[in-house]
Structure formats: structure tokens, C-alpha cells
Write a structure and sequence with these properties.
Number of domains: 1
CATH class: Alpha Beta
Order of helices and strands: HHHEHEHEEHEEHE
Largest sheet: 7 strands, mixed
Number of helices: 7
Helix content: 25-40%
CATH superfamily: Vaccinia Virus protein VP39
Structural class: alpha/beta
Mean pLDDT: 93
CATH architecture: 3-Layer(aba) Sandwich
CATH topology: Rossmann fold
Length: 198
């Protein structure tokens, strides 16, 4: 039986080869064996790793131009959504940012285990970031209104910020467009918020 993240990949037209699929399985195992015991992901998440964490992360790829050179993942935690996206999009450089040294050490270990060459891991507070990027992704490390302020400061012209969270009902946020992923993709409705910088 295929993992639920494979449906998410198809939904956003990601054509994963056997190496990428193997890396995502290895990452799933790492999340279960190391990230959950370390407390970076909740103890009740084991059965939802494929769907809620890896599949959800891959969906971000459907909402930005995958010909960009760089993507920032703000508040990466256990490397979500950055690591699944880095596996799926090896031609893009990913900057994974978190303020916790413990989480950053775990993410560096995951990147070594997976052999990823397109990830830069940065220990820094979001408010101290410098520079600009065409794409910012985040899995609810900040509420959309606060992330929107950060994104406006760091996005290049025509850049895009994308955020997802554990919302039980459709989120609506001024300045953001809400996209719904149907329940047949990941067994429940998923919402993604998108903000474009003009």
C-alpha cells in the first residue's frame, strides 16, 4: 500500500523517483525514532506522520514557482515542511530556520542521514533574519498575521509566503488567500494560506 504522501505528491504534480521515495521513507522513520522521542513532534503523531507531516509538507510545492533558486522554511522544528520539499525539489536551495539549538541539531542530523546537499540550517530568531527570498514556507510557527509582517519584509518582488496549520475549520485571514485540499488527498480537508508580495 502506498503512503498517503504519495497522493499529496501527485496532487501537486511532483514526480518522485525511487531515490526520493526512499529518502522520504527514511525521513518518516527518523521522525518516529528520533523526533518524537525528542519531543519535537507530539507523542500521539506516530500514525499521522505520513499524512499529517510529510504529505502536508509536500502540498506546499503546488503553490509556488518551483523554478526559484531559494526557499526559506521559518520555524522549521523537525524540518517540516523544508526537508520533504528539499527531497522533492533537489534543484532548489532550502534555508531551514529555527531559534532552538536543540531542534536545529536534530534537523542537521536528519539532513546528514538523508544525504541532502540543498539544505542550509540556520539557528536564528525569525525577527533577526536578514536578506530576501522569493518563497517563505511555514507550518504555523507564527500566526498568519505575524508571519505576514515578516514575509513582507523578506520577500522579493512577486514573492510568495505559504503557511499551513492544524486548523479544524477553514481559516480566513486578511491579506491571505485560503486554498482547500480535498479530503481524498490526505483523508481529511487541509487548508493552506497564501500571501503574494506585489
Amino acid at each position: 500500500m502506498e503512503p498517503s504522501w504519495a497522493r499529496a505528491a501527485r496532487w501537486v504534480d511532483l514526480d518522485l523517483d525511487s531515490t526520493q521515495k526512499s529518502q522520504l521513507r527514511k525521513y518518516r522513520d527518523w521522525l518516529i525514532e528520533e523526533a518524537i522521542p525528542a519531543g519535537v513532534i507530539g507523542p500521539g503523531e506516530t500514525k499521522r506522520i505520513d499524512r499529517r507531516h510529510i504529505g502536508d509538507s509536500l502540498l506546499f510545492a503546488g503553490y509556488f514557482d518551483t523554478t526559484v533558486e531559494q526557499v526559506w522554511d521559518l520555524g522549521t522544528g523537525a524540518g517540516l515542511p523544508g526537508i520533504p520539499l528539499a527531497v522533492a525539489l533537489p534543484h532548489i536551495s532550502f534555508r531551514l530556520v529555527d531559534r532552538s539549538g536543540r531542534r536545529i541539531a536534530l534537523v542537521r542530523r536528519a539532513i546528514r542521514i538523508l544525504g541532502l546537499k540543498n539544505c542550509q540550517v540556520v539557528l536564528e530568531r525569525i525577527e533577526d533574519l536578514k536578506g530576501k527570498t522569493p518563497v517563505i514556507v511555514s507550518r504555523a510557527s507564527l500566526p498568519p498575521d505575524l508571519l505576514g509582517k515578516v514575509a513582507k519584509h523578506h520577500l522579493t518582488r512577486d514573492g510568495v509566503a505559504i503557511v499551513a496549520g492544524s486548523w479544524l475549520t477553514r481559516p480566513e485571514q486578511p491579506g491571505w488567500v485560503t486554498k482547500e485540499i480535498p479530503s481524498d488527498v490526505l483523508d481529511q480537508p487541509i487548508w493552506i494560506l497564501i500571501m503574494r508580495c506585489e
